[in-house]
Each structure stands twice: as structure tokens, then as C-alpha cells.
Amino acid sequence: MKTMTSIALAAMSCALAVSAWAAEPIRLIVPTAPGGGTDGFFRVLAKDGEPHLKTSVVVVNVGGAGGSIGVSQMVRAEPDGNTLAGVWMGPVTVAPHTMPVNYGPHDYIPVLQLTSAPYVLCTRAEFPADDGAAFVDTLRQHPDQYTFGTDGAGGPAQLATARVFRPLGIRQRDIPYKGAGETLLALLGKQIDIYVGSIPPIMPYVKNGQAKCLMVTSAAKVPDLPRAISLDELQLGQEETLLWRGLLAPKGTPPERIAYLEKAFEAAAQAPGTRQFVASAGEQIVILKGDALRQRIDREYRALGELARSLRLGRPGS
């Protein structure tokens, strides 16, 4: 009888907790300025998540310092499950090694990874290589002859490129830009030879023949880019760097609340609006949670930290 009473009380307590959570709007911190891929994705996801959460989701943009300002706000928030951060990998596994931040990978709870896509290395049509293997050979044989544009010193695209070029013995000149948009303009304007960035900005120019993509930073090939060599083909699958997006919660958020958020946002990721947005961005829905996501973050954090230090990009003590 006592056991039945305990079960009933536990069920009632859980129901009351869910009811209380549903009464409060969720504050979703997106650590970028309004506009752009990350902001757009989380706005669509927030809208699709509301029916499953049974409450509103308010997106709050907190840009600056590579996303670390927004993540810092999330880390310091009350761990009641009503404040989350919608992030890409930059402020999670890159920024802590390249700038002063007040958090590390165990100062928050990874709730859910939602999307994933590789960085791509693309050239103008006239570049003297027409497939990935020839691209690698050309870069190896002509050190310091070509320039490649990335998202700046210590940025994810720069580290993703260095992570591949170093073991291949490639030495070319890195030109820093503020993001993929600027890098693309520099490529089209013939200021650089190689674009390094996300897939969506370059795809219209691949389709009209102005550009060709010859390498991806994923282990697997990208079907839409058949000329691009993958890291598995180069026997460098362990050096994969992906642009992923996911949700973080403050450390101390109750496990039952994390489970509730996981379930709701995983369902939201399958909604037509979110799926359409992800497909149009050249990305994929890839769900990771729990220990799998924690291990992925820890592994990437270590690898990019070691790389940043070897490139002398790391801040002292990182």
C-alpha cells in the first residue's frame, strides 16, 4: 500500500512540475546578432517547439566575443529549465581556447545536438584541379602559392582547415575574414584562391559553374558535392570537424526537466518547418543527446584545444 502511495505521489509531483514548467515561457539565448544561419534556425525551431512544450519560447539575441557572451549568460542563469542557449560549435569547443571565457565544457548541460554539416573548401572554376585528389596534390606541390579565406584567427573554419592541412603536409596562406559571406565575396572577386566556410553561401555558384568544391571536413562524402574529397578518403576521418547546432542548459537543471526539453525539441526538429529550413541550409538533422553528446563535446574540445595551442592561438592556461 505504501509503495502504491509513493508511486502515486511521485506521479503527482512530476505532473505538477510539468504543469509549472509549462506556465513559464522559455528564454532561448542565441549568442549571435539577429539574422544569419544560427539565429534563423533557432527561431524556426522555437516556433515548432512551442506546441510540444505547451508554452512560448522567446528568442533573445546576445552577440559578441564569438558567442561566448551569450553562453556566459546562460551558464549564470537560474537552473530551472526555463533558460537555454541555442549554439553552434564555436562558443562551445573553440572560443574557450582562444579568448577569455568564464566557462568550460562541464559548466553546462548539453541537452541536444540537432543539426550537422561540414565545412567546405571551394575554388573558382579556373583553379588547376578538378577533383579532390588533384586539389590535395596541387596544394602539396606548390607551398605558399595559394590563399584560403577563413572566419579569422582561431575561428572554427580556420581550425577545421588546419586540422586537415597539417597531417597532409599542406602549407598555404590563410587570409582572415569576418565570416563566410565576406570570404565568398573575396573568392568571387579573385582576392583569394580558396573559400573555406559553410555550404549554403557557395552552392549557387557551384550550380552555375563559377565555383567548384573540392574538399569537405567531414569523414563522409557529401552527395551534393561529388568532386569534394572526404576525410575518410584521405584516411583522416579522425580529424573531422563539423558545424553543428544544439541546445545547452545551466548546470544543475533537474534531470527530469532535461528529459522533458529533449523530448519536446527532438519532436520539433522533425516538424516540416524546421526540416525545410535545415535542408535549404545544406545541413542535416542529426540528433545526439545524453552521454553521446557529452562525449562528442569533450572529444572535440580536447582536439581543438591542442590544435589552437600548437598554432599559438590559445590563450595562456587554456
UniProtKB/TrEMBL annotation:
Residues 1-22 form the signal peptide. Keywords: Signal. SUPFAM superfamilies: Periplasmic binding protein-like II (SSF53850). The keyword rRNA-binding does not apply. The keyword Protein biosynthesis does not apply. Belongs to the UPF0065 (bug) family. This is Tripartite tricarboxylate transporter substrate binding protein.
